[in-house]
Amino acid sequence: MLRQKGNRRWGRRWIQAIVAVMAGLLAAKAALAGPDGTITALSATDAPTPGQTITVSASFTANSKINNSNVYYEIIAPDGVTVVATHSTSAPSLQAGESFNDSWTTTNTSFPSAGTYTLTACWSKGGSTNCQLDFKTTSFFSVPTLGGWLTLLGLVLLSVFLWRRRADFRPQPVNTR
Predict the structure, then answer these.
(1) Which residues contact 80 (CB under 8 A, 6 or more apart)?
(2) pLDDT per position as a tens digit, 100-119
(3) How far is it, in rounded angstroms, from Cα 7 to Cα 16?
(4) Where are the chain's structural domains?
(5) Which pairing describes strands 69-76 and 83-91: parallel, antiparallel, or unpaired?
(6) For residue 170, what are the CA distances in angstroms to 7, 61, 135, 165, 173?
(7) Residue range 37-145 in CATH 2.60.40.10
(8) DSSP string across 116-145
(9) Helical H segments across the chain, by residue range
(10) Which of 163, 64, 75, 168 is nearest to 122 (CA)?
(11) Per-residue pLDDT tens digits for 7-48
(12) Model confidence pLDDT, tens digit, residues 38-48
């Protein structure tokens, strides 16, 4: 009889240990799963010439079922403060493991200065912009305009050139003989 009670104790301890290990594995799996969604890629093409188109591309993957979400993009100037472009996209409903791609374009004509711009993508549930699903940042280089001083210098040089060549633009006398 003593032996049976001891075996029951060990049997209960084994069951408790197995349950504890299973609970730990489930907790680890939940911790590794992370948020409901992941931004798997974010990029923007450089725009090294004035007036050039910038193409923004992103990829998103659902880690669990997601209904009614949106992505909000911002392009921030090299000063780190000025927002020069924004864009919003409604995301489709996704099941766990499904993904979608998004892209949009803008031009650098309204960008204030040459330099490295920051692109952020904020994926949120509903119509909010709290980035509860995921947030990602990347950067790109842009030369938006010639700048005020460079434009003025170009106009001055053009004026000097035309002034020096003014004789070439006068009408030639007509010989009537």
Answers:
(1) 118
(2) 999 999 998 888 888 999 99
(3) 14
(4) 1-33, 37-145
(5) antiparallel
(6) 117, 69, 64, 10, 9
(7) yes
(8) EEEEEEEEEETT--S-SSEEEEEEEEE---
(9) 2-33, 148-164
(10) 75
(11) 566 566 767 767 666 666 555 544 444 578 999 999 999 988
(12) 999 999 999 88
Which residues 6+ apart lie within 8 Å of 129 measured at CB? 72, 122
- Measured CA to CA, the distance from residue 70 to residue 68 in angstroms comes to 7
pTM above threshold 0.85: no
CA distances from 160 to 149, 150, 153, 164, 169 (A): 17, 15, 11, 6, 14
Task: Fill in the amino acid letter for 153.
Answer: L
The CA angle 32-33-36, to the nearest 5 degrees, is 145
